[in-house]
Design brief:
There is one protein chain. The protein is α+β, with helices and mostly antiparallel strands. The chain contains 15 helices and 19 strands. It has helices at about 40-50, 65-70, 90-95, 105-130, 135-155, 175-190, 210-225, 245-260, 305, 330-335, 475-490, 490-505, 525-535, 540-550, 575-580; strands spanning about 15-20, 30-35, 80, 160, 170-175, 285-290, 345, 350, 355, 365, 385, 390, 390, 410, 410-415, 425, 440, 450, 470-475. This is RagB/SusD domain-containing protein. Belongs to the SusD family. Keywords: Cell outer membrane, Membrane, Signal. It comes from Chryseobacterium takakiae.
Length: about 600
């Protein structure tokens, strides 16, 4: 008999969960099930919990990304003429006017709660199992539960829980200030039963020992904040949960286990971590696997690339961007003096040696690069932060690229699609008519530096699916966390060494003579904060960093100075109305 396992907002949804076929190989098999039902097959239940990492949660711009990035200086989604108004819900995330009825807040809360629900179901199923992989599946399910719960208490200050082995047990509300220590202990206890990455058919898409080390480093780095997020200052060097040093000592300890692991190394081409084929990146520790779902309606999304690209920018005749998200002037100008940093921008070189310089000198590029599945020509835009006049192909009335007589793709100066006399000139300054509202007229829709960090996958429609795996923890993340832990422990020399390891391990493209990044000679808190942005921009890391560094409450473009209660999002009103278990967060 099917029964509700954990009811959130008093809803039951029909969902497709993925069964794992074979021993621990996570091959795809779709079956229909009711959310929260007791799934007899522990592999299917565990696959459903993994699937929820996709399904928009960590891959769509409007969920965890929106809360972790649109609320910061790294990203905003303004209203552009007739586009992206949507009742102001996107602007609210940057203008700090969200409330308990915000669609974006409610959507993120629900998706994370689905992850908690599916993880609890996987734990229950694994507990009932007698299979040889029982201990492994149980540890992975508990690891996923910890990851979803940690993300939820970070964003919302509280998260639901129910005893997975008692469907009649009452819902418990886990509060951030006490739950963070519980989660640390739980994840540490899982390590003996987790697999090492690349053993037992595991990979970066599975919760392995290495994923646990990364999560523990993250939790220890933010432990002081979670214990009192609205405080005026944080004690980052208090004694760790299980003794044996401070919180920062634990960040360093768990980071060392990853940095010293020969399976991981920093990619010299920084942008390979965000390529469509990034599943072979040597930095990946824990990621949302999208490749297997590309082309289906399960767990995959192209938003991280699609949202920032102008509509007139077309990777193939069948694809375009949507002219939405951009970065703020504050973040762009933080790169002053660092435009030669390999993480800032990278030009694309075709197989015949042609470079796309995107500077007006390009006449044509070869059409030998083809979109898989359609065979149509693939135009490769450059990566990283795109500023100034943009260039690219033009679509003819027959729906194909304009080509030269010898079959190359012609390159043109681009004008915005919805204002054809307005050059697609991405300006660092935003200059909203009303500085407190992120609203552009149709004559202003070109404004804002765009982020092409993530490779656009042209195989599955404009805003469709993607084969790019979304990194949750990669080696660059770990170096940055360890650098901060060293810094907060007073070891500035070691912190500077880690920052410089990141800077100098990356190399530019051949147009810049493959030059590596330049090492720094000194390090202070503001420089360290800036460097974290260089390494981790748009990776759902910035809000946590801004809170730790005391930057989150400060005013900025289209953002007023804010009160500390805004460091935590409200519990959706629909949840408050449906359940007496939750209480609203202060300030809302």
């Amino acid at each position: 008999m099917k029964s509700k396992f954990l009811t959130i907002n008093k809803i039951i949804l029909s969902v497709a969960v993925l069964a794992l076929t074979g021993c621990t190989n996570l091959d795809e098999k779709v079956i229909d099930e009711v959310l929260g039902a007791e799934v007899a097959d522990p592999e299917a239940a565990l696959a459903a919990a993994y699937s929820q990492l996709g399904e928009g949660t960590f891959v769509d711009h409007g969920s965890v990304f929106a809360l972790q990035e649109y609320s910061t200086d790294e990203a905003l989604l303004p209203t552009r003429g007739s586009d992206w108004g949507d009742g102001g819900k996107w602007r609210a995330m940057h203008e700090f006017t969200w409330d308990a009825n915000s669609d974006v807040v409610k959507n993120t809360w629900n998706q994370l709660n689905f992850g908690i629900t599916k993880s609890l179901t996987a734990i229950s199923s694994a507990n009932k199992s007698t299979g040889s992989n029982k201990a492994l599946f149980l540890a992975e399910a508990k690891g996923l539960l910890a990851f979803y719960t940690y993300t939820t208490i970070d964003l919302f200050g509280q998260a639901p829980y129910r005893d997975p082995d008692n469907i009649n047990a009452p819902i418990q509300i886990r509060k951030a200030d006490t739950t963070i220590d519980e989660l640390i202990k739980e994840v540490e206890s899982l390590i003996p039963n987790l697999a090492d990455i690349k053993t037992q058919n595991t990979h970066a898409g599975r919760f392995t020992k290495q994923a646990a080390y990364a999560l523990l480093a993250d939790m220890y780095l933010n432990r002081a904040v979670l214990k009192n997020k609205t405080a005026s200052s944080f004690n980052f060097t208090e004694q760790a949960v299980n003794g044996g040093g401070t919180d920062m000592d634990k960040v360093i300890q768990y980071s060392n286990l990853l940095i010293n692991n020969p399976l991981f190394s920093l990619e010299s081409n920084y942008f390979h971590n965000f390529d469509i084929n990034n599943d072979n990146s040597k930095e990946m520790i824990f990621s949302v696997v999208q490749k297997k779902f590309a082309g289906s309606d399960k767990g995959s999304d192209n938003d991280l690339a699609y949202m920032s690209m102008e509509r007139i920018q077309k990777p193939s005749p069948d694809n375009r961007g949507t002219n939405a998200s951009c970065i703020t002037p504050e973040f762009y100008y933080s790169w002053n003096g660092n435009h030669d940093d390999p993480r800032f921008q990278r030009s694309y070189q075709y197989e015949d040696g042609t470079w796309f310089r995107n500077d007006g000198t390009d006449v044509s590029v070869p059409s030998t690069s083809k979109v898989e599945g359609t065979g149509k020509p693939w135009f490769h835009f450059n990566r990283g932060l795109q500023v100034g006049q943009q260039y690219g192909p033009k679509i003819l009335s027959n729906g194909n690229f304009d080509m030269t007589s010898d079959g190359r793709i012609k390159v043109y100066k681009l004008f915005t699609e919805k204002n054809t006399t307005l050059a697609a000139d991405f300006t660092p300054e935003l200059n909203f008519d009303n500085p407190s509202e992120a609203v552009f007229t149709q004559a202003q829709i070109n404004r804002g530096v765009r982020n092409f960090k993530f490779e656009f996958d042209p195989g599955y429609g404009n805003n469709g699916t993607s084969g790019m795996d979304v990194p949750l923890y990669r080696l660059g993340t770990i170096y940055m966390m360890r650098a901060e832990a060293y810094f907060r422990s007073g070891n500035i020399t070691a912190a500077l060494a880690d920052v410089n390891k990141l800077r100098t391990s990356r190399t530019n493209d051949a147009l810049k003579n493959n030059a590596p990044g330049v090492a720094l000679t000194s390090l202070d808190a503001n420089t360290l904060f800036r460097e974290s942005g260089f390494e981790l921009y748009w990776e759902m890391y910035r809000r946590k960093a801004m809170i730790r560094f005391g930057k989150f409450d400060l005013p900025g473009t289209a953002k007023p100075a804010s009160q500390p209660y805004r460091r935590i999002f409200p519990i959706p009103q629909a949840t408050i109305d449906a359940s007496k278990d939750f209480t609203q967060n202060p300030g809302y």
